[in-house]
Structures are given as structure tokens and as C-alpha cells.
Amino acid sequence: MNVPTQEAFTMANVPEAPEDPLYRLMREYRQDTNEKKIDLGIGAYRDEHGKPWVLPVVKKAEALLQTPEFNHEYLPIRGLDSFLAAAQRLMLGNDSPAIHENRVSSMQTVSGTGAVHLGATFISRFCRGTERPKAFISDPTWPNHYQIFSQSEFDVQYYPYYLVESQKIDIKAMIRCLEEAPSKSLVVLQGCAHNPTGLDPSQEEWRQIADVMAEKGHFPFFDNAYQGFASGDLTQDSWACRYFIGRGFECCVAQSFAKNLGMYGERVGAFHYICSPSPDASHVADRISSQLAILQRAHISNPPAYGAHIASRVLNDPKLFSQWQHELGIMSGRLTKVREEIRSKLEGRETPGSWAFLSTQIGMFSYTGLSKNQVRLLKSKWHIYMVSSLLLYAVDTS
């Protein structure tokens, strides 16, 4: 028998890729046998005992699903219609002209990551000129932003966002960068509870950002993974997105329910493309939906059903929705309390440095300013696990 000659298909020369830093940290934490170990790595809410908290409203919604009629059939390519309609209203508002004018194309996705990826793939395919499209992401940002947009064939660049010295947003440098960026660039904006700095622009600063983006013709790509975790108010945390849409921007939104419903493993998300107002906008939205469906079919065929059914119940049942709002307030309020307690304890021990940022930053993340050596020491000596991009999550401070 002849030995096949497949030199063109051999994988012998494939280099080993580095392990994802966050998931490496998770693995190291799980392998650590120390009883006092603390996980400050993965972005998941923990209760006062450091344990996962399944929201009571999620348990109630799950119980309501357990009827003889419930099944595990495939969803349509675009996902669960009742979930998508409710997700649109949650992000854009019940009275959104974009929704009522049928200018929104939505697709259920594999959480926020899937939404960002679907959006990046779609825009790269249909907004390509003679050069690679440019995407600007904040410095610093969620590490996966770079990977997703670069793998979607964008030329990824950074805009300044955080001033280490003052521990504040560098809004002047950000505006200057957007002014100097090539016209019609894509700009990734985190709508609330910025990851990893915990610092959001003020409403006036959002207006300044919108002004320069309108002048330059930039495309806003909102990543809203933490709605409800910045202020505790779902409407307030969607203000930036609604403001841009209200000004007539064509834009898109990646939406996740992993954090605010505490359903991390169910991977519930949505991608929304909002067409700017025009007589033909609803037809454009229909064509966009058809192309998104083609991409979705090739990538995942159709999205997971179970988590979407739970989310749909919570979003569409007035009593469950009210309970969810209350539980979001509990989580966001506790995050604020923990920040204040950590700051108080550090200042009470006269720990060198300024710790005021702990109570001025918001959401699940805190940019601590610790060096990589200090982070390594915390892990090796005290079994405290945090990524070198320096995040803090809600933990028991007692």
C-alpha cells in the first residue's frame, strides 16, 4: 500500500499558543489546596461567603418552565423571539423609535462574546473598502476585544482611556485620538461598568464622544455586558447607548445576560444592529437580518435554548422583572459596600498609596495599580489569585 503524501496538510509545524491568562489563573486556583485561597480572577459575582449566588428570580423562572409542554427542541437561527423582543426593549427602551420603526436587526448569541464576534464578522464583511477596516478599542479593555476584532480582519488600534497617575478617565486624550483617527473607523465603547477600570464617562463626556464621532463619521460598537451593575438601575446603565441612537447614529450593541442574571454558563446574549433613520431603514434592517442569519448558521447553526427561556420569563413577566430589579440592587449595592470596606481596612492599616479609587470606581472591576510582582506575591504567599490586568471582585472582607 502506498503511504499518503499529505505534506500540505500536516500539522507538525503548528506552534503552541499561549494559554489564556484568565483561564490559566482559574486552573491554578482550582489546583490550589489551601483552604484560605481567594479567587479574584473570573468575572462572576460571589456572595458574602465567596460562593456563587443563583438569583432567586432565576430559580423561580426555572420552576415555571417545568411543565409537560416544555421541551428541548432547536430554536430558530435568530433565536427565541420573545427573548429578543424583550432584550431590545431592555437595552433601547420601551418607547424606542428604532424599535417601533423596525430599524433594529437582532440575533440571539452565545452570550456577549458571541455578540461581539457576530458583529465584528458582519461589519468586516460588509463595510470593507480597499483597506482593512480599523477598529479602535480602549486602553485598557477586556482582552478578548483585541482577539475578536483582529481575527475578524480588523486593523485594531487603541484609544487612550485611563490615566494611571490620577486614576481617572483621560477624556481629553481619548477625544484627541478619535479626532485624529481615520474617518469612518469602528470604535468599541463599553456602555457601562467599564472592564477593567470600573470608570465610565459622565453624560457630558458621552456627549463629547458622540460629537467627535459624528464629525468623523465613526461607527459606535457598544459592548454592554454589565447593564445593572454600574448604577443598579437598568435604564440608567443603558443611557449612553440610547443617547447615541437618539442622535441618529447607525450603531450596534452586544448585550450579555451572564452577569446581570447570574447565568454565566448558560451563555445568553444578543446582538442588535440599529439602522439610522431613513425611509428605507426597515428594509435595510431586514436585509441585515438575512445576512446575520447566514453568518449565524455557519458559526453555531442556532443558539442555546434553555438560558434564553429563563431570561425571557424574567424579562416578560412583570412580577419577575420587578424581583430581578430588586436583586440587581442587592448585588450592585453589595459591590459598593465591599469597595468601601476594603478601602476602609487598607486606610486603617495605613497601607502606602491612595485607595480612594476603590470607592470612586463602579461595577465588578477595580483597577488597583498593583505591579505584576505584587500580584505574583499575593498568589505565591497569600493564595490570592488575580490577573495581572489588576481586577478586584466582591469578596468577604472579614
TrEMBL record:
GO terms for biological process: aspartate biosynthetic process. Its EC number is 2.6.1.1. It catalyses: L-aspartate + 2-oxoglutarate = oxaloacetate + L-glutamate. One of its GO terms (cellular component) is cytosol. GO terms for molecular function: L-aspartate:2-oxoglutarate aminotransferase activity; pyridoxal phosphate binding. Keywords: Aminotransferase, Pyridoxal phosphate, Transferase. Its cofactor is pyridoxal 5'-phosphate. The keyword Transferase applies. It comes from the Eukaryota. Residues 36-388 form the Aminotransferase class I/classII large domain. It is an enzyme of class 2 (transferase). In eukaryotes there are cytoplasmic, mitochondrial and chloroplastic isozymes. Homodimer. Belongs to the class-I pyridoxal-phosphate-dependent aminotransferase family. This is Aspartate aminotransferase.
